[in-house]
Write a structure and sequence with these properties.
With 369 residues, this protein is mainly alpha-helical. It contains 13 helices and two strands, in the order ααααααββααααααα. The protein is globular and about 65 Å long. The relative contact order is 0.10. One of its GO terms (cellular component) is plasma membrane. GO terms for molecular function: prostaglandin F receptor activity; thromboxane receptor activity. It holds the Pfam family 7tm_1.
Length: 369
């Protein structure tokens, strides 16, 4: 009788274990599908907005910024399509890597995609920050020396370097390894065999942190120059509204990258340099999931932090704070100046007119009305 009861209890526990495993698999697949769908929709919408802006803007600095921004959104979109499909495939196969990937081909592709689509947004963000810093601090050098083909070459380098880092483990015969959570593949960080197993993850983390540091320095310098120009009331011929919009977007991208990728990059350095062999599968999986949110939040920077949206937010906040109409008129005059300067600068650098040659803003507004 007791044997029958124990057998029945064992059967029930086995059924409960199978049910819980199936439930976890369904929840994981559902969460991956939702994340992939939201990421594809967000990046597609942001790409539509950026391409539309790129076709209507003929300012050189603005066109360069939109080229890098569109490339960043395209990279995030491809990352969701490729990496998201691999994640769904792994979870739907119940993480049985030995059955569906005996030759570790899927694992190699999965690890290379994680490295490439991780470093590429960081490099693109730093390249955008450097380009804007040169455009604001050295506008003559930016207009005369940095041609469009130079920007395209820089864009190619920002894609080529992450690709080389991604295929480096395969070239050095250090293939990617299935991690303890069996959810993804990454560098071989547990029980390293030699210095290569330590060098590869350190190279990945150090390049990512270097890109973040470069973005922080360049964005801080650009913000200080723009703020100083605002305080001294020195308006450039190209208009400060576009510079303000671009620096707001760059600061938001930098903040999102630091929050999402910072924990993973630091955690990889800790895992690579520590001497103990304690299992950290849950922590590594958590920081990897945090890093994937970077591809979802990046496009909303371009969707929400546009000049038209910022102008509406500014007007709404001014109305809520009960400011006078003079502040609104000054904002409208500055936006009118920027639009006139933008239209004048569309023909090239030689067609740039300074604000001193424009008629008074009140007269211009009255003539328009």
């Amino acid at each position: 009788m007791s044997a029958n009861e124990s057998s029945e209890s064992g059967c029930r526990s086995e059924v409960r274990l199978d049910n819980s495993t199936c439930t976890q698999k369904e929840l994981s697949v559902t969460a991956s599908v939702i994340s992939m769908t939201v990421g594809i929709f967000s990046n597609s919408l942001a790409l539509f907005i950026l391409v539309k802006s790129y076709n209507h803007i003929r300012i050189k600095c603005r066109a360069s910024f939109l080229l890098f921004a569109s490339s960043l959104v395209v990279t995030d979109l491809l990352g969701h399509l490729i990496s998201g499909s691999l994640v769904i495939f792994v979870y739907s196969s119940r993480k049985k890597w030995e059955m569906f990937d005996p030759h570790r081909i899927v694992c190699g592709v999965f690890g290379a995609c994680l490295v490439f689509f991780g470093l590429s947004p960081l490099f693109l963000g730093s390249a955008m920050a450097v380009e804007r810093c040169i455009g604001v601090t050295r506008p003559i050098f930016h207009s005369t020396v940095l041609a469009p083909h130079h920007m395209k070459r820089l864009l190619g380098i920002t894609w080529l370097l992450p690709a080389l880092v991604a295929v480096l483990p395969v070239l050095l015969q250090r293939p990617y390894k299935v991690q303890s959570s069996r959810s993804f593949c990454f560098f071989h960080m547990e029980n390293p065999k030699d210095w290569l197993d330590v060098f590869l993850p350190l190279l990945f983390s150090m390049l990512g942190l270097l890109a973040l540091l470069l973005s922080i320095v360049c964005n801080a310098l650009t913000s200080c120059v723009l703020l100083q120009a605002r305080l001294r009331r020195k308006h450039h011929c190209r208009g400060t509204s576009y510079h303000t919009e671009m620096i707001c977007q760059l600061l938001a991208i930098m903040l999102v990258s630091c929050v999402c990728w910072g924990p993973l990059l630091i955690h990889v350095i800790i895992l690579s340099t520590r001497a103990t062999d304690e299992p950290t599968s849950l922590t590594l999986l958590t920081v990897v999931r945090m890093a994937t949110w970077n591809q979802i939040l990046d496009p909303w920077v371009y969707i929400l932090l546009r000049r038209a949206v910022l102008r509406k937010i500014f007007k709404l906040s001014r109305c809520c704070w009960g400011s006078t109409s003079q502040d609104l008129h000054s904002w409208q005059r500055s936006m009118l100046r920027s639009s006139i300067e933008t239209s004048n600068s569309g023909a090239g650098p030689s067609a740039c007119h300074c604000l001193s040659r424009l008629p008074p803003p009140d007269t211009t507004i009255k003539s328009i009305t």
